[in-house]
Each structure stands twice: as structure tokens, then as C-alpha cells.
Amino acid sequence: xxxxxSMAAPxxxxxxxRDGRKGGFVTTGYAAKSLNVxxxxxxxxxxxxxxxxxxxxxxxxxCIFDPVTRVGGMNHFxxxxxxxxHDDTALGxxxxxxxxxxxxxxxxxxxxxxxxECLEAKLFGGARVIESSLDVGATNAMFAIDYLRREGVTLxxxxxxxxxxxxxxxxxxxxxxxxxxxxxxxxxATANREMRFMxxxxxxxxxxxxxLFDD
Length: 215
Description:
Blueprint: E1 16-18, E2 25-27, E3 32-36, E4 42-45, E5 50-56, E6 60-66, E7 71-75, H1 98-111, E8 120-125, H2 136-151, E9 154-160, E10 166-171, E11 176-181, H3 187-200
Parallel strand pairs: 3-5, 8-9
Antiparallel strand pairs: 1-2, 2-3, 4-7, 5-10, 6-7, 6-8, 10-11
């Protein structure tokens, strides 16, 4: 497996200012328009100036792209599998579950011109930042790797596990990805944010049904 770009160059997250368009930012360290990908969401773009950005603890982000048509995207999910698979309540916003998040990301890449047989992926996150009997980060990581294998998407790089949160920058038009491990003082805020979302899963109903890919 080829090494990640992130191993050679750390993320520069400073000098960021609003550009006034669609909630984007211009990050001068990269000369790119930065678009934040928050938990339960995904973004797809073919803009060579777009840079997708997220911060991960136990969550996983899949960065999937077509190097031929040069379109790609990033998601950010909290729990593996599908709603109801790992809990008895079957509650929770569906996009926070891995199977739904992966499906919607790939479908939108295909709708934007990507070709399924060309898709490549890089995976980030899955750290152990939440203290619980279940290692949510490791479970997320294993799910994402297995999902890509089952769906025939080539995994070309991964940066998973550990105990520190990550900041990930991804250029969807080129597939380049950079990550920076955050300091321990960032861990509490990241873990608390993820715990709040996990607690809300017990109170919010699932958004719609899960659709399967057509062969």
C-alpha cells in the first residue's frame, strides 16, 4: 500500500480566513478553499481549489476519489454498520452510521461523474478517545476497511487507531490527503463532542431508509 501524503507533510491549519462563499474558507498555507465536513455529513467536489477538512477522534472519515475524472469527497461518521445493528433502540440520525455515510458519499461521487471501477480511498481516524467497554474507534476502522473490500473500492492509504485525535485535509480533485495528530489537550473537547452525539442517538429517530447499491 502506498504511503499517505500525510506522512511526508504535516497539516498547516493556521492563517485561515473566510472567503464569504458558501461557508468556505481560504487557507493561505495551502492557497485553497477549505470546506468543513462535520459529523454526520459529507461533501463532494471536483474543484481543484477545494480542500475538505475535518477533525476526528473515534470517528472515521473516508476520503474517496476517482483519479481519472478527478472528483472525490469525504464523509465523517460516528458508528459502524447501519442503524439498529449495534444497539437495541435502532435510533439515530442515519448519516452518522457508517453504512449510510459510505453509501451516500459514493453515490454522490458517481452522480458527479466518478466511475465506480476507478474509485480509490484513504481512511483516517478511529482513535480511542472515548472510554467505554467498546473500542468505538477500532470498530469504526474495521468496519470501514471491510466495507471498502466488500464494495470493491481500492484502499490506497490509511491512518487509523492510536489515542490522539486527528485533523485531516483532503483535496478531492487530486486525492492528496494530509493529517496532523492533535495534542492531548484537544482530546477532551473531541471526546466530549462525540459523546454528546452518541447520547443524542437515543433521542432522535433515524432519517429514512438505507438504500443498497445496484450491481
